[in-house]
Amino acid sequence: MQGPYITNTYGGGVQCQGPTRNFTPFVTGNISAQKPYEDYYDDPVYDVTDNFGDFDDDGSPIGDGILDNPGDILFTKKTRTGQKDNYNLSVGFSMTWSTPTDKKLQALCKEAARTNIELQKQLTSNKRLDFEIARLKNCGELLKKGISFHPRSPYYKVCADVIVRDVTYIKPHVHTIPGPVSNKAEDLGGELHSH
């Protein structure tokens, strides 16, 4: 039996019906037989003699039109019944291929489906970005306050990749050392040598 078109739903009210192939195998059979089955049957041969019951002009006995031994069976003979068993087997399949007739509508529906899928992917990416930024912000604020999960905690990895500059990471820097206040050697504490 022919089925309906396959309908694909892509969200946002976008539904597209695609081609449908129906493949239906079938097997039918028929057996007719008579029971009991007999190849031959015994056909009785009756005694139809009529030799007595009347006399001719000479006084000899002749038949009178009535059987002398009605119902007597002389013998039986084998007669074919012609009985047969009938067998019938049919094997095959039916197949239908159904396609929508307006290909432009199909193309538009497919384009709408692709657009809707891309929109759903973009929305998912946006939500992922919002989640990651919120995680970065919250983890950073907690790390500034010195709050974090224990390294053995299963939740430690939630903030493990967050870096807070100048708190969890030492910024490269240079210290300047002030020069001597006096230019005299004796003020520096070293030995004096004269040349």
What would you say about this model in short?
With 195 residues, this protein is an alpha+beta fold. 24% of the residues lie in helices and 28% in strands.
What does this structure look like?
It is built from 2 helices and 8 strands, in the order E-E-E-E-E-E-E-E-H-H. It is of the alpha+beta class. The protein folds into 2 domains: 74 residues, no CATH class; 70 residues. A two-stranded antiparallel sheet has the order 1-2. 1% of the residues are buried. The model has no long low-confidence stretch (mean pLDDT 83).
Helix content: 10-25%
Question: What is the helix tally?
Answer: 2
Please tally the β strands and state the result.
8
Radius of gyration, rounded?
Answer: 57 Å
Total domain modules? 2
Distance between the termini: 121 Å
Average pLDDT: 83
Largest sheet: 2 strands, antiparallel
Going across the biggest sheet, name each strand in turn: 1-2
Q: Strand fraction band?
A: 25-35%
- Which structural category do the helix and sheet elements fall into? alpha+beta
Characterize the quaternary organization of these chains: single chain
Order of helices and strands: EEEEEEEEHH
Q: Point out poorly predicted stretches.
A: none
Overall shape: it is: rod-shaped
